[in-house]
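Section 5.1 Outputs to date
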Amino acid sequence: MPSSRARLSIVFLTILIDLIGFGIIIPILPYYAQRLGAQGLGLGALLGVYSLMQFVATALLGRTSDRVGRRPILLVTIVCNALGYLVFAAAHSYGALFVARVVSGFAGGNLSVAQAYIADITPPAERSRGMGVLGAAFGLGFVIGPAIGGLSAHYLGPAAPGLVAAGLSLVNFVSALVILPESLRPEHRTERNPWDLSHIGDALRNPRLGALMAAWGIAPFAFAGYSVALPLWAGVVFGWREQQLGWLFTVIGTTAAVVQGYLFGRLTRRLGDRRLLIAGGFGMAVAIAVIPLLHTTVALYGWTVVLAFSNSIFGPAASGLVSLFADATEQGTVLGAAQALSALGRLLGPITVGKVYDASHPLAFLVAGAIMALGGVATLRVPKGTPAKHATLPVAPAG
């Protein structure tokens, strides 16, 4: 069995390749959807259905991984990713594009399983830094993926990004099949009904977890809404297309990779997860609300760095705190509940903010920023001090 550090490196590589494929699609989707007749609400629906499927998948996959292990779930979802990207590449109608996002959204539900994998192999004291490694994979995926997506669409046509992403997913499957070991010990496996969603309500009612779970739903709502409005706004104000948006997401990814791969561990030792969580929530709120006041691309890039930095301290701090409250037997369940709430936020945010954008471009950013500020307020209610090592949620009956 490889050491914890070696297994962390392996899952890092697996998630990195997965997220490069995801990042390839990000700068392409808004303009791809526009060519097929979508506006703000239509684009919001594409992002929303992706998150709806993530919501369903996290509820299913997190609990299933607690029963059968992390490795088989990761392998199956990587194959689903490849299928989704192939449908994306072949899409010549809005309906086909919608189907592609349904398939990819389900596969995207494997994030809670990846987080549970890291929780399996890291001691509690190292948990947040382990989640930071996962965040670094996100960052690098967003450095490499959007650049590949923007350039391949610009030079090779709209189908190229989907084909490249599908190819990467197949490479990822082979590499994970060969080198990714199982992380969940047999004695930590539990039998629960995968379709029972009561764990989400249990998490929200838990006195220690409730505020964290609220932030897990509110912050993605606002950020996903911003992700709908920004490409459309930049296209109107600055004339941006896929290539320019790809470079912007590359900046976001670079910032995330530096912060989560290098700075986060140092910051959390000095300041603690709770303070980083609060700073990240309010930092994102300001960086989103200020967008309508910007009149140069330099200013947009500057505030994007602020947004990316804030998001990069918020995410691993939230993941680390949630995992510390969960028992070893229910890491997948609790993190699945968190990811389900996050997916629910990403479902409602794009549709809501996309509809607001169609009515008023500036108002969309103000609404998203105000909602993000509510997430910041929720973080203020996260209990101070170190979570109890074995604090757990009520376990749902097997069935």
